Amino acid sequence: MAQPLNTKSMGGVARQGLRRLPLNATILAPLVALILLFVVSSIASEYFLNTRNISNVMRQVSYTGIIAIGMTFVIIAGGIDLSVGSMVALVGVIILYIINTISDPIQAVLLGMLAAIAAGGLLGLFNGLLVTRGRIAAFVVTLASMSIFRSLALYFTDAAEVSTRNPLFSNVGGGFFLGIPIPVLVFFGLAILAHLLLFYTPYGRHVCAVGANAQVARYSGIRVERIVLSTFVIAGICVGLSAIMLTSRLNSVSPSDAGYFYELDAIAAVVIGGTALSGGRGTVWGTVIGALILGIINNMLNLTGVSPYLQGLVKGGVILLAVLLQYKRA
Amino acid sequence: MTLSRLFKTAALATALAGTPSLALADDYHIGVTVPSADHGWTAGLLWWAQHAADELSEKHPDVSFTVLSANSGTAQVSNVEDLMIRNLDALVILPHNPATLQAVISEAYDEGIYTVVVDRELETPAQDVFIAGDNPGLGEQAARYIADELGGEGNILVLEGPPIPINSQRVDAFNRVMENYPGINILASQTTDWNPQQALSVTEDLLGSNPEVDAIWAGDDDVLVAALQAIDENNRDDIQLIVGGGGSQRVIEMIREEHPMVKGTVTYPPNMIASAMALAVHGVKGEHLGDMYHGVPSRIILAADLITADNVEEFYEPEAAY
């Protein structure tokens, strides 16, 4: 009789200990999965721990990772944004058009980047207004705008790839600072900002409140519509940043191809990171870890030369297991 | 809680460790990357890449291959980056879209990796070898064959591909040859996007509006199969000849079994990837091809071969995916 009591109290102690740590179980589980994946990958391929490989993976992750950070806000507030992938293509086309129109290279790059942020924000505002003022479900709005943005990108370019001869632009996404690729620095810098915004400001608490229960939030005096609208704008600005990094790394944009399926990778990263698709709770760090998990899986499959037919199966299976790992069975 | 987590952790670890590791210490490591198998031709491409990887690595024990596919240009950029980590000696790539891949292929080429670009040419050349099929040749061969079979007289329908340069090269060449045959009348030339569903409805419409048709040229073999279905469903017996393009095994089988209408197709072979891999094997070792006095040529255009009952056995590969 004493034994079960003993186990119970030990479990209680362990749980109390965990609670004292700054990390809770939702963030701990993806972290465990990430560490595990890291260890397994370094055993599976001798090339995995190569510095250049690590820097490649981080750069590959950062494009969808930056978008996933914006997506975290949208999902916590109870929405979803399916248009981010197409938005990357449209914003990418806008950037290259501006850079190719302006002759002074420095001015061209600066204005191109500013325009990308502005265009991303405006496209996000378009989604947000339709959701809040138009009272259409976010899924439907962004399903439609996904199609609209891609179609506009194709129309402006006649479906042809656009490239630039600007000598400076490729240094933005292809460059390094202190040995770290610039997209990676942007990704982590943005993650820190977003984390502070979500956890240490009234705005962040309002986003969570709206996602948890919009009605209650409204009665508590939160301007629900404005919060929802702002999350779409944040997502749009993140897309603008990602489009800058991607188009400058490739020095070109393909309207039919850029950002293809990015919405799914971004949503997967958010979900693996422990954010509830129903909204109300979630963390930016979880999303960062989720994005890293996805990137390492892709990289490991390529490094070990798994059959191209089976790569999707392994990727899907690992995503399912990583998500299973974080839910305590009732 | 801890036990079940441990169990799940173990399951995850097993799933990951179970993925085969092919990282062998060979003398030459060749990386291959192609677009994913999203339609017939690209499925054939991936099949041939894997087939050639098996055959060539058996024949040349000092060579190993890694074959990857990508569903987008940006995913293919990651493929190349990942391949380059693994001490790559040669890269064989059919670029999803050339401009997107330009930067990363240039990086590989500048690092001294022996680079073979297949089918789609880069704007700024960054390769040791470029190998592709003959698009104008495909149109010419089809046109000559149809004109000969019809004896220079007859009404024909043309099923075009999507409005892209490759399609116009094929169709323009076809029309140039047909200008020499005043007895041949092109009733209509319509786009099908090389998509079987669309080809089916386009052919139905064209058959409906043209009661007398002698021959059909389908720029792609999957389109040919769809057109054939439209002909069968409309019980048309006026059509004597359908000629395809590409050289799919399904159409090759029809020619082999002496189909009454499907008598010929012109190759645009997906196994160009296999030849590209063979070129990489010899090129990376600095060998010559056969008795050639020079090294591997820098530019190779594969002939567009007409396949008819006379030479069909040469092209018959029942296992292939296209």
TrEMBL record, chain A:
Record's keyword terms, sorted: Cell membrane, Membrane, Transmembrane, Transmembrane helix
Any Pfam family: BPD_transp_2
Main localization category: membrane
Record keyword Membrane present: yes
GO MF annotation list: transmembrane transporter activity
Keyword Transmembrane part of the UniProt annotation: yes
A GO CC annotation given for this chain: plasma membrane
Parts of the chain that traverse the membrane: 21-40, 60-77, 84-102, 108-129, 136-156, 176-200, 227-247, 259-277, 284-303, 309-327
UniProt-annotated location(s): Cell inner membrane
Membrane topology: Multi-pass membrane protein
Similarity comment: Belongs to the binding-protein-dependent transport system permease family. AraH/RbsC subfamily.
This protein's name: ABC transporter permease
Automatic annotation (TrEMBL), chain B:
Entry GO terms, CC: cell envelope
Signal peptide: 1-25
Keyword terms of this UniProt record: Signal
Residues in Periplasmic binding protein domain copies: 30-282
Keyword Hydrolase in annotation: no
Coiled-coil region list: none
The keyword Signal belongs to this UniProt entry's keyword annotation: yes
Location(s) in or outside the cell: Cell envelope
Example of a GO MF term: carbohydrate binding
PANTHER family: D-ALLOSE-BINDING PERIPLASMIC PROTEIN-RELATED (PTHR46847:SF1)
Protein name per its UniProtKB record: Ribose ABC transporter substrate-binding protein
Protein source organism: Vreelandella nanhaiensis
